[in-house]
Amino acid sequence: MIKLSGINKIYRTNEIETLALENVNIEVPKGEFLSIMGPSGCGKSTLLNIVGLLDSPTSGTVEIDGTLVKDMKDKQLAAFRNKELGFVFQSFHLINSLNVIDNVELPLLYRKMSARDRNRMAREVLERVGLSHRMRHMPTQLSGGQCQRVAIARAIVGNPEIILADEPTGNLDSKMGAEVMELLHKLNKEDKRTIVMVTHNEEQAKQTDRIVRFFDGRQVQ
Ligand SMILES: Nc1ncnc2c1ncn2[C@@H]1O[C@H](COP(=O)(O)OP(=O)(O)OP(=O)(O)O)[C@@H](O)[C@H]1O
Question: Is the CB of 18 under 6 A from ligand 1?
């Protein structure tokens, strides 16, 4: 379970202070598919970065599976992020100079694991996302929807409990977007992964378990 309590985030640049999040309290039970919605600039990505341990709140606490994140040391934090969290971004963030399977293997490079095991695990998840036949392709040889499926394979290859997706269909046409959503639902239902997804798409959000809406850094349920 992810538990955010009294989260405030203030960005300070020169003289300007931006209150990006104000007193945010969210609990995401294990296995939930949660959507985060709200207009541009309301704090959605800030929130996802905090849940993803990529940024820390100015005040308030983040707890993941009973562990208080602020009590963790940097090394522990990096290991936790690598093991428990999978990230999916709007613009895929694949490495164009690596082929599909090498992209998928990347998160496993930080683990003590043989090349053979890495390869086996990457093949398994590529099969899961329906792309084993594109293993040796380069990202530039794939469609947007295929790129996002590779990115999802990379996010799940290390078996994380939690998938964080920041507008995963934002760069895709509706057909490819639907395919990616279908895959996320499958991972949620069949593999029981917790998913937190930022989206601007009302239809897609309605198909998830719950929507938390934001306006100007505040939750508006
Ligand atoms: N690194 C930063 N430094 C200063 N201000 C920032 C920084 N990142 C975000 N902000 C500000 O914090 C607020 C929330 O930004 P955030 O990116 O979380 O919004 P968002 O809801 O994800 O927007 P979008 O839908 O456009 O991606 C905005 O006012 C933004 O300008």
Answer: yes
